[in-house]
Amino acid sequence: MFGVNWKAAGLAFMLALPVGQVLASERAEQAWRMIDNGALVIDVRTTQEYADGHLPEARNIPLSDVGTGFHDIDKQQPIVVYCRSGGRAAMAMEALQKQGFTHVHNGGGLNEMQETQMNTGPLN
Q: Where does the signal sequence lie (predicted)?
């Protein structure tokens, strides 16, 4: 009638919903719970990104080094990985799981984790 592409309009509406933010907050909250319980925090961004700012407790093992950078870490050690948006952290988590690490969590992005920590405070 008006030439409206209802499929595209429905998709646009769904994408506008804050579901991604809710899920993102949940993953960051879980990350902070793990960190409060002693998880190792790994920033998988580049060394330059890390130098520009990172979580105080984080070690930098860039995604390109995930294959070799964890050789001295116990495979049972809980680990939280994060990056800029969560994408590289997801790749790192998958690579670590393939290496036999059993307790790896994608905390998402740096800003997401920082905002979650500011909004919730210490989770312990």
A: 1-24
Q: Give the Cβ contact number of residue 114 at 10 Å.
A: 15
User: Is 83 part of the annotated catalytic residue set?
Assistant: yes
Residue that has been written with the tokens 């790192």 in this structure: 92
Please identify which of the residues 34, 79, 81, 83 carries the catalytic annotation: 83
Residues in a beta bridge with 108: 82
Report yes or no: 82 and 44 within 8 Å, Cβ to Cβ: yes
Positions of the chain with pLDDT under 50: 1, 6, 9-19, 123-124
Per residue in 87-106, pLDDT (tens digit) is: 999 999 999 999 999 999 99
Helix-helix angle 110-120:19-36, to 10 degrees: 70
Segment (H or E) for 59:
strand 58-60
